[in-house]
Each structure stands twice: as C-alpha cells, then as structure tokens.
Amino acid sequence: MSVQRFVVIGNGPAANRAADSLREKAPESKITILSKDPFRSYRPHLLPDFIAGALKEEDLYFRPHAYYKERDIILRLGQSVVNIDFSKRNAILEHKELVPFDGLIVATGGKPRIPEQFRLFEELMLTLKTPTDAKLWIEKLASTEAVLIVGGDLTSLSLTKALLKLGKHVRFILNEDAFWPRPLNDEVYRAVTERLEQRGVEVIHCRRIKRMTRLQENLLEMETDSQTIEAGVLGAFFGLVPDVRFLVKTGLDIDHGVLVNEFLKTRFTDVYAAGDCAQVYHPGLRDYWVSIGYENAAALGRIAALNLLGSRLEVRVEPESILEVGGVKVNTSWWTEF
Ligand SMILES: Cc1cc2nc3c(=O)[nH]c(=O)nc-3n(C[C@H](O)[C@H](O)[C@H](O)COP(=O)(O)OP(=O)(O)OC[C@H]3O[C@@H](n4cnc5c(N)ncnc54)[C@H](O)[C@@H]3O)c2cc1C
Hints:
Blueprint (H helix, E strand, L loop, with lengths): L4 E5 L3 H13 L4 E6 L11 H5 L13 H6 L2 E5 L3 E5 L4 E4 L4 E3 L2 E4 L3 E3 L18 H11 L4 E6 L2 H12 L3 E6 L11 H13 L3 E2 L5 E8 L2 E6 L3 E4 L1 E5 L2 E3 L15 E3 L10 E3 L4 E5 L4 E6 L1 H15 L14 E3 L2 E5 L6
Parallel strand pairs: 1-2, 1-7, 2-3, 7-18, 9-10, 9-15, 10-11, 17-19, 20-22
Antiparallel strand pairs: 4-5, 5-6, 8-16, 12-13, 13-14, 19-20, 21-22
Bound molecules: flavin-adenine dinucleotide (FAD).
Flavin-adenine dinucleotide binds next to α1, β2 and α7.
C-alpha cells in the first residue's frame, strides 16, 4: 500500500493536535501542515501582555521547527490555501501549487467578528488575533494616549488591562455583543461597568454609533447618540467567527462554519473540519453549533484525526453548555476573569 498523504490546513491548536494524533497513530504517513500565517504557533492569550511590553515577541511562540522535524511533520508557513479540488484531491495554494492529499483536515480557525452595523467602519478599527495585529497596536499606541474600545469580549478586557498598564486613557463602549458569545443582560452590564470604572476606564453609555470620521492620521472622532468622542486608536472586539470565506467555492457545506456531522466529517470522503472553523451537528439538538476556545479546538483536532484514521468518536457536548447568540449556537471553552 502506498504511503497515505494527510494535509492539515491551519497551524492553531486544532491543526497541531490533529497532526500530532495522525503521527502517533499513522507513523508511516506523510503529514503536511499548510498555514497562511508566516509565523510559528503562538499563544493568543499572551498578545495583550506583548502589547503591554511585558513579554518579548519570541515568548509568544511555542513549538520550534525542531518539534515538527523530530516528528517528520512538514510545516509550511505562509502558504495560503485558496481553493480545494475534491475530485482530484488537491489543496490549491495561492501561488497555484497543488498539494495532493488522501485525507484532509480543515482547521482554519476564526477571525475577528465585525457586526453588520460596523462593517462600514472596519478600516478605522483595529482588531487582535495574531502577532501581526499586536505589532500594529504597538505601533499605533506609540503616538496616542486615548484608546476607544467598542464591543467588549474577553480579549478586549485583557487588552484593557494592558492599556491601563501602559498608562493609556481607555474609553469603553459596552454594547449588547460585549461578551459574545455570552449574552449581556442588565445585571452583567452594571457589574462590568462598575469593574471597568474601578480600574479607571471611562465607560460610555450610548445606544447608537452615528458616525465615525478620521480627522488626522492618529485622530478619530466618533459621534454617538449621547456624545462625541475623540480617540487615537479604535479597537473593535466582538469575538471570533469561523474563517471560511475561501471555502465557499469549494463545494463544502458552509453556514457560519464548515458543516460537519457529530464525527466532524464533511460531505466529502476523508475530509474533516475541526476547531473554530467547524460547525458541528448535535444529534440531541438537531442543530449545528460553533466551537470557540483553545481547549475545544485541540480536542476537536484530535477527534477529527482519529476519525480520519478509521475511529468513530463522537463529539459530545451537553446541550446546556451551548449558548444561542444572535441566531448562532456556540459552545466555548474560553472564559477568563477580568
Ligand atoms: C487575543 C486572543 C486571546 C485568546 N485567549 C483565549 C483564552 O484565554 N482561552 C481560550 O480558550 N481561547 C482563547 N482565544 C481563542 C483561541 O485562540 C481560539 O479559539 C483557538 O486558537 C482556535 O484554534 P483553531 O486551531 O481552531 O484556529 P486558530 O488558532 O485560529 O488557527 C487557525 C489557523 O488556520 C490558518 N489558516 C486560516 N486560513 C487559512 C488558509 N486559507 N490557508 C492556510 N491556512 C489558513 C491560520 O494561519 C492559523 O494558523 C483567544 C483568541 C485571541 C485572538
């Protein structure tokens, strides 16, 4: 029998756990990781500390190249997959190279979520997902004192801590998406406002953002229904959504993420999806849920790999731990205290 060729798209926890599991159970196989990011695996929860200057860039990264070499896993960084040909079983890279596979795991993760009402202002807003984003924050913060955070979510709270450490003046507009994927009710709104204010954050209470204008390179103005605010940097924090846009044309079933059954299998033979990019069927709910969080991603990566190799492991999630947010069912392993 010829050597099986497995391709994993992504280099986050889902992809890495999948590649490790494939190597452990299929020692003879050829395993290739394709990742569009040019950098090694990083710890996203450390990005705010990096911005605060508490860590060096090198401290963000783990798994040196030697890790992959020792396990005979081919790690290809800076390789963006732009399409997948399932009939010929090739992943197609941006520079047109075809990477053939017998089995494929899609683990492309999530990207910062920008709600519809803010899409128009997207170019004025900074988000935080990768070390590249963090470096842009560092660059912008060097010439500004006032930062406006819109949205909320867990990342924004850790970043706020970092900004306060740097002595920045932080204004915060908490809106209904503030703790996405958790809903924000009045009680939580009051508690979070109190916490933020105790730490010296100015919480802006408003219902609507009417206008955003770039006045100068480092000066933005935002008009809300309650006041007009100026800030040097504007951060948008509305959680993460599956990063699957490039997959729409491939023939995979896509809703919010890549639709997979409870065994993480897509509609194509030997093609699985795992981590933040997957939308997983729940037989009890008869509906799909999106996964968010580091531990969830790694656990799903392992299941996808083992099932690709012939197991039949079902993803089990208690229905109570699946939240409905804005019409999307979400399960998250991520929750930290501010
Ligand atoms: C700032 C920040 C802090 C966080 N803190 C926590 C925390 O404290 N606890 C927690 O549980 N979770 C946290 N998270 C969420 C957690 O990082 C994610 O849930 C987790 O990384 C998802 O893992 P993943 O493997 O599914 O995808 P990701 O880690 O998002 O990795 C996706 C990979 O896919 C690659 N990729 C995407 N598209 C393509 C393409 N077309 N071609 C090739 N490669 C592609 C990317 O380069 C990347 O390597 C945080 C996230 C952020 C951004």
